[in-house]
Amino acid sequence: MELTRRDAVAALAALGVGGGAALGVGRLGRDPDADGGVDAERIRETQVAAAAVVYPSEVSGTREFVETFLEGRLEQPAHAAALEEAVAELDDRAESWYGDAFAVLSVADRERVLEQVGADTADEDPDGTTAERIRYYVVNELLLALYASPTGGELVGLENPQGHAGGLETYRRGPEA
Amino acid sequence: MSADRPPAEGAEPIDEERDRTPVADADVCVIGAGPAGGLVASRLAEADLEVVILEAGPRFDPADRLARQERAIRPAYDRPAVWDGDPERDAHASSGERFYPLNHARVKGVGGSTLHWQGMVMRLHEDDFDSASARGVGTDWPIDYEDLRPYYAAAERELGVSGADDNPFAPPREEPHPMPAFRPSYSDGLFAEACDELGIAMHSVPNARNSETDDGRSACVGYGTCQPVCPSGAKYDATVHLERAEAAGATVLDRVPVQRLEHGAERIEAAVYATPDGEERRQEADAFVIACGGVETPRLLLLSESSRYPDGLANSSGLVGKFFMDHCFAGTGGVLDKPTRQNHVGFLTSESHQFYDEADDEIAPFKLEFFNYDGPSPVGLALSGDDWGDDLLERLRAEYGNHVGMGALVEQLPREDSYVALDPEQTDDRGNPVPDVHWSVGDRALETVERVNEIQERILEELGAEITWQVGPEDTGPAYHHMGTTRMGDDPAESVVGPDLRTHDLENCWIASSSVFPTGGAMNPTLTIAALALKAADDVRESL
Ligand SMILES: Cc1cc2nc3c(=O)[nH]c(=O)nc-3n(C[C@H](O)[C@H](O)[C@H](O)COP(=O)(O)OP(=O)(O)OC[C@H]3O[C@@H](n4cnc5c(N)ncnc54)[C@H](O)[C@@H]3O)c2cc1C
Ligand code: SF4
């Protein structure tokens, strides 16, 4: 199933951020200050790479979806900074265990890094341990974006998932519609 | 919204340097900014009275609603955190036979608990006002359905209720609801077939939620997180009436918990409130309306004890805090071998009040609810599992999609051993003894929960469901409706307020709250709270 820019904008709209993305003002990489002084490129590459692990193989269009979603989230300086910190820790582990940055590892190695960090079994916590913060900022950030979007919901048979303002028709529709 | 913290973290109350000095020459001081206080205040301000509202909690920023929704969805935040619950400010005890999760059952702030509520609003039935004479248990209210009927109609207009005239069991009404009802859900249709077979009638649910754009407020757009937050404002909350009151000239002070009521023998003289900088101030007024909800209202009266009233204010009956009631929840659910389309919206579209008026001294009134959100929400599952990628999707597909569930509310009778008291062992952030909700439920309610479970099982079996969960007599819990703790009656020895909602002891003190309900019925209480608030407002106005 193809993830679209519309999905990313819908996910952002649900999370209350991303004036730029929601208005279609794509400014990826154009203004280094706009992302609050963080290394936005590294965050984007790492999140796109992590999405290859945490998103199901059925979805395509992940890069554009993640990048559009991040555009909005990175507009929040505090969020961007905390995200950067989590990404840096992930890269540190990737470097020391597999000798390279997370984003350039194979998908299988990326999954191993995430597991060895403990992000699979950790409960998300924005102020918690490394595992809990990676779960919050990296893994769950991506899962939230996907499963609160119409396409993500549709994968499960729910085209109007919680968090998405999908209107008043879908709840009345039968499964065959 | 603070940009210094991540989105979900960044939601925070509006923290302006506000003038929190008392209002000079106030006619009316309203304590508590939930729907009861908001309605009283807006009515009286619109009647050109000088009104001041004192609210313990903060003012929330409407721009933060989506961030609060993110909190509602993400497992890192519990329910009280969605509306900035503060464990020290909101400390409480629960010493009864059943635990009472008070801070899941209320919100403090401008808007009160309606910020979190579900928003179904129905009128009590005629017999609910005459429990002792019609059912042989409990007590009669000093007013009847007919007395409240015009106020119910006004309350439906105020809250903006979407409803239909399709409920054959509802009490008589004079005019249609302000907006059309929400149409039944897909799963309602599945239930309807089973209920038809069993001769059980289903009907729509009146919702304090816009089915159309109304009065500048959005129509429902299907976010599906109504409880605990509606980002669109389609669900009514009491900020509507606080804004209306302010537009009519009332003053709303936030973060000013009232500590005690200073009084003489027959009148309240001032409400003493604390400010965020730790000062205490006195708000004087000609009339005082206490609208702090069913737990904090008796607590404030008890905290206001004096040498004249050593057992607490307005308490010469000794009944302040007594007869605490909630509605008992009964539920059953299961899975079908086909999709049931749950979790699109966060509210209910069908109920059955068929068995309600069969109540007697052994069986309590109850209403049946058909869920639109049974089973897990996929996004919630995704964020809390130990898996991702294809494994996660496979799990979501296995766990989401074929759930069906039913709930019910059951009346509990007023009992002396169910009460709110002060806990002398524990104090809040201001050094005041915390409320102890000592909740106990009698046999009639528990036996009715069992009967409800049987009906729910019959319906689900007819539907072909495999039953996977049940909430029965052992594990029934509260529906978060706090009633009974300053009961209304004609006899000052047997009640705290009269039928005009004025306390028997103090001539300038009214109570607007479900705390005045002598019995609870089994309908969600807020429409009745709103109707009584409008009635109280009329009486305050006449008396001034
Ligand atoms: C999860 C949930 C779902 C619900 N669903 C429904 C439903 O579907 N239908 C329904 O009818 N009802 C429902 N309710 C109940 C409904 O929210 C309440 O009945 C209603 O809000 C009560 O209104 P109120 O104004 O009396 O009290 P509240 O809304 O609780 O407001 C009281 C206000 O008083 C303030 N206060 C308390 N003490 C002081 C003090 N000392 N000084 C100053 N201020 C003070 C509080 O901070 C609060 O803001 C639900 C409640 C919850 C929690
Ligand atoms: S489904 Fe609930 S939360 Fe969403 S818009 Fe409607 S009332 Fe609000």
Q: How does the major sheet of chain A shape up?
A: none
Strand content of chain A: under 5%
Pattern of helices and strands of chain A: HHHHHHHH
- CATH topology name of the largest domain in chain B, in short, is FAD/NAD(P)-binding domain
Mean pLDDT of chain A: 87
End-to-end separation of chain B in angstroms reads 41 Å
Radius of gyration of chain A over all CA atoms, rounded: 16 Å
Global mean pLDDT of chain B: 96
Most extensive interface between two protein chains, with residue counts: A-B, 54 and 62 residues
Number of strands of chain A: 0
Number of spatially distinct domains of chain B: 2
Unique ligands: flavin-adenine dinucleotide, iron/sulfur cluster
Q: State the low-pLDDT regions of chain A, or none.
A: 18-35
Structural class of the helices, strands and pairings of chain A?
mainly alpha
Counting DSSP H or I runs of 4 or more residues, the number of helices of chain B is 13
CATH superfamily of the largest domain in chain B, by name, is FAD/NAD(P)-binding domain
Tell the overall outline of chain B.
globular
Strand content of chain B: 15-25%
Q: Per the principal axes of the C-alpha atoms, what is the gross shape of chain A?
A: globular
Layout of helices and strands:
The complex is a heterodimer of chains A (177) and B (544).
Chain A: H1 5-15, H2 19-22, H3 40-54, H4 62-73, H5 77-98, H6 107-117, H7 130-147, H8 150-156
Helix pairs in contact in A: 1-4, 3-4, 3-5, 3-6, 3-7, 5-6, 5-7
Chain B: H1 7-10, E1 28-31, H2 35-46, E2 51-54, H3 65-73, H4 79-82, H5 131-135, H6 145-159, E3 162-163, E4 179-180, H7 186-198, E5 203-204, H8 239-247, E6 251-253, E7 258-263, E8 268-274, E9 280-284, E10 287-290, H9 293-303, E11 328-335, E12 350-352, E13 366-370, H10 378-384, H11 389-399, E14 403-410, E15 419-427, E16 433-438, H12 443-462, E17 466-471, E18 509-511, H13 526-543
Parallel strand pairs in B: 1-2, 1-10, 2-6, 3-4, 10-18
Antiparallel strand pairs in B: 5-12, 7-8, 8-9, 11-14, 11-17, 12-13, 13-14, 15-16
Helix pairs in contact in B: 2-8, 2-13, 6-13, 7-12
